[in-house]
Amino acid sequence: MLLLKNILLAVEDSSAPVQMLKALLDLSGSRGARITALHVVKATPSAQKYDESLLRGREILEKTIAQLALPPEYELRTVLRTGDPKDVVCLVAEETNASLLLMGSRGLNAIVAILKNSVSQYVFQRASCPMLLLRDGFYVNRLRRIAVAVSDTMASKFALKTAVDLARQIEGGQLLLIRVRTRQLDPGETLKVDKPEEESLLLATAAEVARQQGVNYRTLYGVGSPGPEICRLAEENGADLLVLGCQDRRPTIARNLPDLDRLLGNSVSDYVRTNASCPVLLQKTAE
């Protein structure tokens, strides 16, 4: 599976991203993957503090190697860099041509993240590869249920393909197909809650894709604001991973500039990233 062939793991003190990576490496599509474990040391005027940070960084990388305990079929390299973590993570992702970036997140909303100089918020804006975020306190030992938000965007179609590919590799796994209707119910209108596919052609089409691939699935339909509804349906149905397509609406010349809607917290992806009760895999695709 291309997504799992060249993984960049940004490591800090938390072991959650390492545990998430181990869960991904249990999937057959990860065989022979190349993994880069990156730790970034912030520059400091104090030589003593800098040396201490370098030593701590080496210890973190050594601990990561021990925790992963990878068999010989995997290629693992460690990278210790100095600089601003936000810039270095993006740079190394480009240098390694990463197919997936995996890192932790404090789950801050957009404005707070900016004010607190959040690494994950910045990288989410700049990185072009898929990004898997784990909020503090989340641990995944095994993937069972993969949720994906279904819409009519190209990014959503890529996200659906990724979710189906992941679910196919999980013995006894299940794909949760989520569709949210933003228009409120008309007076007297009721939902066919037991037949969600009859409520949405997009949902029915996604279900057919899953059937063709032999994937066990459930369809889920909500009404309301997309971000909260996606998070609610994923949590209520026990999702271990939520896959979400993200439209990059900026022109190519401005791709290195932040997306104002996301900076202000007006996007579905920003809400889900900061509020989902499970790890979130974000796939950014040009509109």
Automatic annotation (TrEMBL):
Gene3D superfamilies associated with the record: HUPs
UspA domain ranges (all copies): 5-135, 144-282
Domain of life of the native organism: Bacteria
InterPro entries in the record: Rossmann-like_a/b/a_fold, Universal_stress_UspA, UspA
The family this protein is said to belong to: Belongs to the universal stress protein A family.
Name of protein: Universal stress protein UspA-related nucleotide-binding protein
Organism from which the protein derives: Gloeobacter kilaueensis (strain ATCC BAA-2537 / CCAP 1431/1 / ULC 316 / JS1)
